[in-house]
Amino acid sequence: MTSLRTDRRDVAAGARAMVPWLAGLVPFGLVIGVSAAQADIPALAGWLTGPLIYAGSSQVATIGMLDARAAPMVVVASALIINIRLIFYSATMARYWRDMPWWWRLVAAYLMVDPSCAVGLNGYRRLSRRRAHAHYLGGAVLLWVSWLAAIGVGATVGAGWPAWLHLEFVMPLYLVGQTVPKLAQPAQRRAIVAAAATALLALSAPLQLGTALAIAVGVAAGLTVRPDEPAPSPHPLQRTAEVRR
Predict the structure, then answer these.
(1) Residues 37/65, Cβ–Cβ less than 8 Å
(2) Are residues 149 and 35 in the same domain?
């Protein structure tokens, strides 16, 4: 009985830790739903990008490419490339989930996106393994339910939304807000710059291949940065002293 109460408290704590993330993610989900409703694709297909892809950036790219009649293989490849970061998240979580049943790992992996990974890691660093599992699920499930609800509401009201509101600007603004803090890291900065430059150069690429090409170039550029590469010193004498030490 005590264990059950503890699990419930940890689930609730994980959900509370996720609430600050929802302030930015729920409006983003609403706009994705509105965009799906206004795109030239079936409404159900637009909403299904939520549970099937479950990643905002990939959903934006997928809806845009479906609306532009991109080739199916290009749409699938772009979504997979955008979500390649989830492989690294999975590698980070693997040591915490190694002893859990396969079905638990399957559910937990499906629910893992940027916010749920961040909230989960915070729990694993502070709590015992069992309590941290409950903490992770509490935050991840709340995020999943809120995200799908936001997309559903946006898709429902989106068809009659006034066009002059230009809600499509919310998505690039949100993505810019997510990108700017990452410019401090060399690997991420190189990946962002390379992907942005490639996207601009490939605007006229056929079959909407510019998006997939930009993603691939960005990932390749980010992988070229050595994680242990020290930042260069602006003073040559200081660099010489460091080498001597």
Answers:
(1) no
(2) yes
Contact 156, 137 (CB under 8 A): no
Assigned token pair, 11: 């689930």
pLDDT of residue 71: 79
The tens digit of pLDDT for each residue in 56-66 reads 878 888 888 88
Measured distance CA(213)–CA(203) in Å, rounded: 10
| Domain that residue 81 falls in | 2-157
Same structural domain for residues 11 and 122?
yes
Rounded to two decimals, the pTM is: 0.70
Contact 127, 135 (CB under 8 A): yes
Torsion 207-209-210-215 (CA) sign: positive
Split into its structural domains, the chain has a count of 2
DSSP3 helix / strand / coil % (the chain, rounded to 5): 80, 0, 20
- Are 52 and 15 in the same domain? yes
DSSP 1-42: -HHHHHHHHHHHHHHHHHHHHHHHHHHHHHHHHHHHHHSSS-
pLDDT of residue 211: 63
How many whole angstroms separate alpha carbon 188 and alpha carbon 208?
24
